[in-house]
Amino acid sequence: MGRIALLFLFLFFSVAVEGAPQAKKVKCNDDNYPQCYKSDHYCPADCPQTCVVDCSSCKPVCNPPPPPPRKLKSPPPPYIYSSPPPPPYIYSSPPPPPPRVYSSPPPPPYIYSSPPPPPPYINASPPPPPPSTSPPTPTPSTPTSPPPSSEGSGQKKARCKNRGYPHCYGMELSCPSSCPDHCEVDCVTCSPVCNCNRPGSVCQDPKFVGGDGITFYFHGKKDQDFCIVTDSNLHINAHFIGRRNVNMKRDFTWVQSLGILFDSHKLFIGAQKTATWNDATDRLSVSLDNETIILPNQEGATWSNSTSNKGITITRTQNTNAVEIDVPGNFKIKAVVVPITEMDSRIHNYGITQEDCFAHLDLSFKFYALSGDVNGVLGQTYSSNYVSKVKMGVAMPVFGGLNEFASSNIFATNCRVARFSGELDEKDDSSLEAEVYANMMRCGSDIEGGVVCKR
After folding, report:
1. In the record, which residues are listed under signal peptide (predicted)?
2. Is residue 112 part of a domain?
3. At which of 193, 224, 250 does a domain end?
């Protein structure tokens, strides 16, 4: 009986087991968990057919775990250049001009530097005559003076005074920066020039520009006279004034006056001593054969010696302090009295006081009859066999020879190089050679607005 019961119980459990569903085999398929990836597991009894493997715990579970948050791939960083990008191409030349627009007004009429040509004839009734109170129009034979200068406005200007150059006559031009207080207009080029930069000039401290165009300085000594030109019928001495510079071995000097001998005449030109400078006050002294020449303080005022066969004329080139002396066939001199200004004194350390402004002469010479044997500080540079002794390439080339050119007084002819006899030596053909030599010199404008002549 007991055996039958055991058999029945066994059959019951067999049926029960056979009737129960078989557990499902599952695997972890996430390769992010290598310790669990592809390992076999069986579903639990609660869910024998619907389980999954929790890869993180590596166990079968009935409810699948929530999926891990999805990782969004960040975009790749922008490409960074190792060097800055090249700049845009810039043209070295300006862009082409814009196309011409024909709707714009026509260009202004051409303006002539000289008086414009007369307008074309128009066949119309003539305008009414001017009132009788206006001055009459001068005839061609009536000389007219150039228009007045505008120096009253404070700006130094000069104008062309030669009627032979109508394109430039009367035109006012400002003085160059190298000579802002005094200049003249070269009517040929219609440009302002500094007399002190031309060949044959003696200016400032004192600066010489020789006939060869080379600039040099001859300081001399204060209160002494030196021969600057000596020839058979022309002898010019210059009287130097100045101040001693304790820091130098020489004097600061300027040409205060000239003593000129020609034929049987004695001509004196000098700057009078003055403390305070005034452009309106004439400080120029001129005498011929011990006779003082009086000229009205008016530009263009002229004195002439009608009894002299040389026809000597002295003309004011400004209202005061400037004259031109012309001896036909011999020489022409332009002389201007100028002071040492406070600025000049400060720049060059002259030590000028209010007691004396050291009024002196700025001079320019033109010679007509020099012989080839001419001598003197300036005259030697016109000699036919002159070789410059000036040391070139230095800031201030200084020419020596104080003892050689020293004279005992303003009209003395006893310097060592004296050539004066009071008449032109007709036996000496060197004057003709000098004239030919002068004609062979080539002249042109220099960078400072002056004129330089070269052989």
Report:
1. 1-19
2. no
3. 193
